[in-house]
């Protein structure tokens, strides 16, 4: 499983690369909402869950896929970007695994992600 406590792990920017990587993991009625990529790792938001992808090893051929269902979200926090701090953050608290934190680049619409999570978790 991904070490979500490592703050430097995710600095995500919108990108469709990981949407293709998780396509075969999706359920029949599951659709991709948006996807994000950091240097090697990524996150995909679907209509049912969040899939975090951790690329492992030197070649990157080994990948860890962590499924985080919206139904297990008990709370979440959004920090928007500011004038000097251009990055935004999303902290999600899951009933089964605890806190998960994602950091996004300034161009990410964190409010749209927040609305999407609310639509599926509340």
TrEMBL record:
Protein's name in the database: PH domain-containing protein
Pfam families from the UniProt entry: bPH_1 (PF08000)
CDD domains, per the entry: PH-like_bacteria
Organism the protein comes from: Pseudomaricurvus hydrocarbonicus
Domain of life according to the entry: Bacteria
Domain Bacterial Pleckstrin homology residues, every copy: 14-120
């Amino acid at each position: 499983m991904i070490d979500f406590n490592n703050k430097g792990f995710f600095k995500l920017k919108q990108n469709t690369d990981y949407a293709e990587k998780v396509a075969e993991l999706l359920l029949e009625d599951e659709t991709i909402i948006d996807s994000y990529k950091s240097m090697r790792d990524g996150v995909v938001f679907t209509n049912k869950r969040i899939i975090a992808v951790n690329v492992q090893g030197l070649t990157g051929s080994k990948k860890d896929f962590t499924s985080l269902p919206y139904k297990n979200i008990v709370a979440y926090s959004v920090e928007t970007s500011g004038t000097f701090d251009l990055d935004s953050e999303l902290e999600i608290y899951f009933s089964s695994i605890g806190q998960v934190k994602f950091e996004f680049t300034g161009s990410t619409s964190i409010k749209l992600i927040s609305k999407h999570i609310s639509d599926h978790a509340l």
